[in-house]
Amino acid sequence: MDTDDIIGEVLTKIRPTEEERAFVESLMMELKAIAEETIESLGLDVKPYFVGSLAKDTYLAGDHDVDLFLAFSPDIPLEELREKGLELGKAISEKLDSYEIAYAEHPYVRARYRGVKVDLVPCYDVKSWRDVRTAVDRSILHNRWVLENLGDRNDEVRLLKRFLKGINAYGSEIYIRGFSGYLAEILVIKYGSFLDVLKNADFMLRQKIIDPGNWLKREYELAMKTVRREAEADRPLIVIDPVDPRRNVAANLGWERYGFFYFKAHQFLETPSREFFFPENRKSGSYLGELRRKGTHLVTLAFDAPNLVEDVLLPQLERTARGFEKALPREGFSVLGWNVGHSGNKAFIMLEVDRRERERVMIKPGPEFFTERGWDFYRKNERVWIRGKRLFAEKRVKEDIAEVIVELIEKNQVAMGKNVREAIRSAEILLDYVPKELGDEAYLFLSREKWNLKG
């Protein structure tokens, strides 16, 4: 099949049908009516706005999450916005099917209505970036900008989003660090089509700065401040937000996810296939076979996952894995790779290491013998000798990596995420073995299929 045939076939799957569009429109009309009625009954001066992919008609078939923003006058204080916004969100949700309170910069309400997730988010009704006071205020401006600039390229955005999802590079959450929907829309507006975005994967990386709002002419000082800050942070791309010169739309995009996009774009243009959009299940195999093939070992810490949202839990697990990656080499073990995640209510950290045991005795270098610390070293150690000016001693060491890990945790010698520290203290430490439900995960990690650019 040639590229056009593949794109045509993919579009029939991802473009919403007429029935679906009718459902979405009626859902939005009902929600708007409920919101307006509730605002009026509470005597509030608030405008409801739909934002996100439904409002911009860039949503994928079957993906109907609703973002309803409740825009308050910029004159009211932030504390009042939080209080009244939550009160209004709850009052609207009482008329929907169910709801819960969620927390971001300020509390908002996550509801469900007619089988669809509905986020009710308080914000300020801003007309310009100069009025922005909370992180969510820009969403209304983003919506407006995309609607004014996208034209009839909605399907091009759908293709890019589905491609990014297929290669596992979609989502700007901190634990994914991929492309946001808004970034995908900007790239299509900037380059013209899905295929043109792929063709520019190399160019945009070399160019580094994308400025669709022309801020480097209109607000040079502010825009340059953003560029310098983001260049210093070594971001793959700097996409100056067309509605706010102070913000990089690609700030959360990590090098790994951009790298995935970079290679997969090249591969698709060379050998197009629907697999890029709808990958088949990832390969499975034996993690024990991988350990035998490589001669390495697998240490898994399994523990009850603290009750945290993924955006918080996964970065904390990553921080802890990096802590072990730094601490274990000091104890004579090399960490060849790590992997984190959760399965049901269990969280895990997997470490691939070069050995399970180490030497019984280590040589411990000490200070110069004629110092106060030298005397302290001399008193504390059993076998002590001098080489040049420095003292040395033999140190008997724990041999097994599981013992070493327990000791490191007990002595607080591993940097760990603060919300997972206590749970890890009671973790089960498994050597070269994982429970059945983690078998595939262990194989994908050890074989590197999880991140395989050629897979």
From TrEMBL:
It catalyses: a tRNA precursor + 2 CTP + ATP = a tRNA with a 3' CCA end + 3 diphosphate; a tRNA with a 3' CCA end + 2 CTP + ATP = a tRNA with a 3' CCACCA end + 3 diphosphate. Homodimer. ATP binds at S53, K56, H142, K161, Y170. InterPro entries: CAA_C, CCA-adding_arc, CCA_tRNA_nucleotrans_2, NT_2-5OAS_ClassI-CCAase, NT_sf, NuclTrfase_I-like_C, Polymerase_NTP_transf_dom, tRNA_NucTransf2. Signal peptide: none annotated. Belongs to the tRNA nucleotidyltransferase/poly(A) polymerase family. Archaeal CCA-adding enzyme subfamily. Residues 37-142 form the Polymerase nucleotidyl transferase domain. CTP binds at S53, K56, H142, K161, Y170. The lineage of its organism: Archaea, Methanobacteriati, Methanobacteriota, Thermococci, Thermococcales. The gene is cca. A single active site specifically recognizes both ATP and CTP and is responsible for their addition. This is CCA-adding enzyme. One of its GO terms (molecular function) is tRNA binding. Keywords: ATP-binding, Magnesium, Metal-binding, Nucleotide-binding, Nucleotidyltransferase, RNA repair, RNA-binding, Transferase, tRNA processing. One of its GO terms (biological process) is RNA repair. Catalyzes the addition and repair of the essential 3'-terminal CCA sequence in tRNAs without using a nucleic acid template. Adds these three nucleotides in the order of C, C, and A to the tRNA nucleotide-73, using CTP and ATP as substrates and producing inorganic pyrophosphate. tRNA 3'-terminal CCA addition is required both for tRNA processing and repair. Also involved in tRNA surveillance by mediating tandem CCA addition to generate a CCACCA at the 3' terminus of unstable tRNAs. While stable tRNAs receive only 3'-terminal CCA, unstable tRNAs are marked with CCACCA and rapidly degraded. Mg(2+) binds at D65, D67, D119. Residues 155-278 form the tRNA nucleotidyltransferase substrate binding domain.
